[in-house]
Amino acid sequence: MIKNCGIIQEVKLTSYAPNGFEYYINDENALSQLLHFFRDHRMTNTPSSYDLHLHTEFSPDSSTPLEAYARCANQLAIHIGFLDHFELAFLDRIDYLNPNRFPRLLEEYDRVHSQYPYTSLGLEVDYYTDLAPQLAEFCDDYKKDFDYFIGVVHTIDRLALTIVEEMEELVKTIGLREILERYFDEVESAIRSQLFSGIAHIDGVMRFLPLFPGSPEVNSLWKQRTKELGLLCQEQGVLIEVNLRGLNHPWGRMHPDPQIIDELILSGAKFFVGSDSHSLKDFENTAPQLCQLNAYLAEKQALRLPESIQSSILHSEK
Fold first, then answer.
1. What is the domain partition of the chain in residue ranges?
2. Which class in CATH covers the domain with range 48-317?
3. The whole model's pTM is what?
4. pLDDT per residue over 169-178, tens digit each?
């Protein structure tokens, strides 16, 4: 559908997307044209695509208001989920989301949701094995306030795998293989904890790995562990995120890799799509591919939403 809307400069085969397409917008007015195309061609007022991973002004690395995303998503007929960071290990940092700020977040979400009903509210909850009891208590205390919790691993020894300088420090101190081993062990613990509807960027440790000379052994370890964790998600009833943020980093592809996605689909795994946008521009730029991914997963009967979101949608359509 998207490739026929007249605003795509080039469509080429690529390994970066399961459906084999990559899009190049041809001019600065393309977004406006894209908005009109989606609005004019949607067959129903009900969104047919979902992006359940948007960071807002309530995350330390974003300044985008909830309403800005919601307004744009409404034009694109995309159901969105706000998914700000919650990092229990860093609650003392002034710019990080903590329970004291939840009332303001919930109030703002209720206001936006009343205008744009195809929105949901979740949290991207960092998992730490050493804080597992506290995380379980937190999720139990706040599960009624949020539609879904998505588990994620961003750190090892409290150093961020998503910050190049901190990744460099880890490489120097423990080496690439141990980084991967410990990362995937932590993700496995998050999956087995049964605290989360889904897992975000299941192989996110790879985001900056091309910057560091590795070995075929590390590459083999990544593929093996990612597939194993995907199968574990299927076994545990945990959704796997197809995360688009890796496309804009040295990794150059989505998480998990498209080939692994297709292998897991054949095994019966279920997925949801997240742009992992940290700005409105991120969201706008990923909209074409996001919609194609939703269509691809739906066609393969591999698209699934967190239960509370699905129930809410079904209720609103009655």
1. 48-317
2. alpha beta
3. 0.87
4. 999 999 999 9
